[in-house]
């Protein structure tokens, strides 16, 4: 996930809705929440898997910002999300059997 910043820039260039404010962290939060629920994990379980605090998962899922790319990377990895998966959620809305996340993100 070392290239998370590059993907964020590419997505901002590609999808105008991501050029405003704290949009990426709000959208990352929806992805993490949706995938965590789909996998049947609690915030505590995900925090343990990602080696971060429960408070960090709560902050991440609330989209409050201030989460580092390193932390996002740990959480994405714990959820078995690749950089390609994260980008595809934004670009296509569907990836490997996941429901259409793009509609969720825009709501």
Question: Please, could you describe this protein's structure?
Answer:
The protein is mainly α. The chain contains seven helices and no strands. Helix 1 runs parallel beside helix 6, helix 3 crosses helix 4 and helix 3 (43-50) packs across helix 5 (69-78). The longest helix has 16 residues, at 23-38.
What's the helix count? 7
β content, as a range? under 5%
* Unreliable segments of 5+ consecutive residues: 94-98, 102-107
Q: From N to C, what is the helix and strand string?
A: HHHHHHH
Average pLDDT works out at 76
Approximate shape: globular
Which structural class is indicated by helix and strand composition?
mainly alpha
Report Rg: 13 Å
Q: Any chance you could write out the topology, listing elements then pairs?
A:
Blueprint: H1 4-14, H2 23-38, H3 43-50, H4 54-62, H5 69-78, H6 83-91, H7 101-106
Helix pairs in contact: 1-6, 3-4, 3-5
Question: Can you tag this structure with a few keywords?
Answer:
107 residues, mainly alpha, disordered C terminus
Concise description?
The protein is mainly alpha-helical. 64% of the residues lie in helices and 0% in strands. The C terminus is likely disordered.
């Amino acid at each position: 996930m070392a290239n998370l910043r590059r993907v964020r820039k590419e997505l901002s260039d590609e999808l105008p809705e991501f050029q405003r404010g704290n949009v990426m962290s709000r959208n990352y939060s929806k992805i993490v929440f949706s995938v965590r629920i789909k996998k049947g994990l609690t915030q505590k379980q995900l925090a343990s898997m990602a080696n971060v605090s429960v408070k960090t998962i709560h902050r991440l899922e609330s989209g409050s910002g201030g989460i580092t790319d390193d932390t996002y990377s740990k959480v994405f990895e714990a959820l078995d999300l690749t950089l390609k998966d994260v980008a595809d959620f934004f670009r296509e809305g569907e990836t490997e059997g996941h429901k259409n996340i793009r509609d969720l993100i825009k709501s």
